[in-house]
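Action item from last week, closing it out:
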Amino acid sequence: MAVRLRLKRTGKKKQPSYRVVAVDSRKPRDGRVLEIIGTYDPRQEPSAISIANERAVHWLSHGAQPSDTVSKLLTISGAWDEFRSQGSAAPADGSAEAVQAAPAEPAPAPTPDLVLDDPAPAPDLVLDAPEPNADDPPEASAEVPADEPAPQNGADEPKSTEPGEAQ
C-alpha cells in the first residue's frame, strides 16, 4: 500500500480549511484516512499550521510520500528537519548493519582525459568550404552530371522568328 501525506479539505463553501492526513494514495481526496496528523488553515493571517511532528516523522520513516504542499508545511513545522536528522542517524529499514558491515573504500581517483598538444584539425576536414549566404539565389538541387546531356523540353530555347515557320 502506497501511503501519501496530503491535505483533506474541510470547511464551508469558499471557506476552506484542511487536515494533514496519511492516506492510501488510491483513495479520493476526501476519502477514508489512515491517520490525521495535523491541520492547516490558510485563511488566517498568518496561516495556522498545527502538525504532530512525531507522527509525521513516523509516517515519513515508513515510506510515506508527502505532496508538494504538505512537504512545505512539514518544512515550516520542523518535521522535515527531524526526519532528515533521524534518517542520517539510523535508517528505519535496518540497513544500518549492512552499511557498517561493509568497509568503506574510497572512490577511485578520476583519470585525466587525453590532452593533445597540437589541436590541428584532421587532414580530411575541409575548413575553407563556402557557407551558403541568404542573399544568394538557391541553386538547383538536382544537378545533371557532365557526361549526360541536359533534357530538351523546348521551354528553355528561344523561339525562332522566321516568317515561314508556324508558331
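Closing note: The radius of gyration is 38 Å.
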